[in-house]
Amino acid sequence: MLNVCADRYRFTVGLAASLLTDKVSLLPPTHTPEVIGRLAAFAPDVFCLTDQEQCDIDLPQVRYRPFGAPRAHGAPAGPGGWRVPQIDAAQIAAIVFTSGSTGAPVPHRKTWGRLARCVRDGAERLGLLDGRGHAVLATVPPQHMYGFESSVLAPLQAGNALCAEHPFYPADVSAALARLPRPRALICTPIHLRALLASQGELPAADLIVSATAPLSQELAGDAEQRFGAPLIEIYGSTESGQLATRRTARERQWRLWPGVCLTLDEGRAWARGGHLEQPTPMCDELEVIDEQHFLLHGRLADLVNIAGKRSSLAYLTHQLNAIEGVQDGAFFFPREPQTSAAGVIRVAAAAVAPGLDAARLTEALRKRIDAVFLPRPLILLERLPRNSTGKLPRESLQALAAEASAAARRIGSS
Amino acid sequence: MSKTASSSLLQPVEPAAAPAEITALAREIAGLIVEALNLETAAAEIDPEAPLYGEGLGLDSIDVLEIALVVSKRYGVELRADSEDNERIFRSLRRLAEYIAAHRTK
């Protein structure tokens, strides 16, 4: 099942129903036609559960029955009420996909037991398991691994209240948070935190702020703690490994691992194992192991791209660019002097040789293949790429071209 | 969303300003957007009638959040979500300019 319900409550009902009927939830990194096609090839019996009137995902669709619609069947709760169903810990609950490097998404199977253990360990670390019953609001979608764990599974496992809404603008997040009873927690990202802190209005008091998807600066974390009057805990994890460490960013640089999880370095690459992990799992960041429980995060591995919690690699994006009809050669790269926007987002750039296409048509073709956050800025069209005598593309040459293109655009803009 | 907030969002976007002022404001907002998002497009090249979101200028949800920040800072307009009104605001630069003209506090 591909569960695209935008409403978090409906998503959760869909998840519960799939668990009880032994269906596997598929969580792909994005819903572009290219990825949906791959998903259908991976699981030919996949269907899409949606709560939208219009859903353009090209799979058999099951519409979530809106509130108040007549019940087809099903008995009301008996005198004893509902019994909480027991799910086999070994049951495959979800398959989460990463984009891989050559086109086909890479599946990662998650059993219910491991998923539950991971979020229970996390809830304990965050103080969400202390019986006070937090109300949990999230600015991230339930389809993203972080949102899946922290806004759906954690409330289910820790007896917290889950909020169906998915507020977007700072004013909406503030209003939604202010409406909740305390204690209340906000599951957030650096982008939304920056936007909230930059907005003019007063921020409602919270009891816990959680951030993940990209590292926060100590300064921003300190600001957030002050404005919300709550501790800010950052979570570290990945799609492959699930969540596995936290830090109180305003006070410490080191990350503390989940109980039972350990990190080892193998030829420079950090691997996580133990705890909820099904098998030793390579991490996609440069990690420095401090001791059995602690590590430092130094940044992502060279080829990886992480924009707003969506992960890809330059190799994958380049592969998708070159797969477009009419593209003779092309490459994605990081701009030399990345300009950070107000929300702290850095984009990727691309150069392509595509004589019959203009930038707009090429962007449209890319949009069908890759998530919109990875659409290149700038996209430079050239007669040929600056390949050297061995056919390699020196990053510096591409970056110089991008800088030139930006300067030219600014000249036009100011004229 | 509270009653008052949603009813203010559901008001038709009536341009309070004359068309010429809207055009000038749209130009100004285009400049802010290009600057905020580091776009390669020159502000003057943005078609005031073309969609901002998805196709057209090709903005995504992060961009919309960035624009919300700029608009709040510059014009004192706090954008609020996911009513149909919101979709209408981002249907084009002109719609956005009309909305800001009608709701600006600075």
What key attributes describe this structure?
heterodimer; A: 415 residues; Rossmann fold; GMP Synthetase, Chain A, domain 3; 9-stranded mixed beta sheet; B: 106 residues; mainly alpha; Non-ribosomal Peptide Synthetase Peptidyl Carrier Protein, Chain A; 5 helices; 0% strand; disordered N terminus
Explain what the structure shows:
The complex is a heterodimer of chains A (415) and B (106). Chain A is of the alpha/beta class. Chain A folds into two domains: 275 residues, ANL, N-terminal domain (Rossmann fold), CATH 3.40.50; 111 residues, ANL, C-terminal domain (GMP Synthetase, Chain A, domain 3). Chain A is 29% helix and 25% strand. Chain A contains ten helices and 23 strands. In chain A, the strands form six sheets. Chain A has a nine-stranded mixed sheet with strand order 8-7-9-10-11-12-13-18-17. In chain A, helix 3 crosses helix 4. Chain A is globular and about 75 Å long. The N and C termini of chain A lie far apart (53 Å). In chain A, 41% of the residues are buried. The mean pLDDT of chain A is 89. Chain B has 106 residues and is mainly alpha-helical. Chain B has one domain: ACP-like (Non-ribosomal Peptide Synthetase Peptidyl Carrier Protein, Chain A). In chain B, 56% of the residues lie in helices and 0% in strands. The longest helix of chain B has 19 residues. Classes of the chains: A alpha/beta (415), B mainly alpha (106). The interface between A and B is large, with 36 and 35 residues.
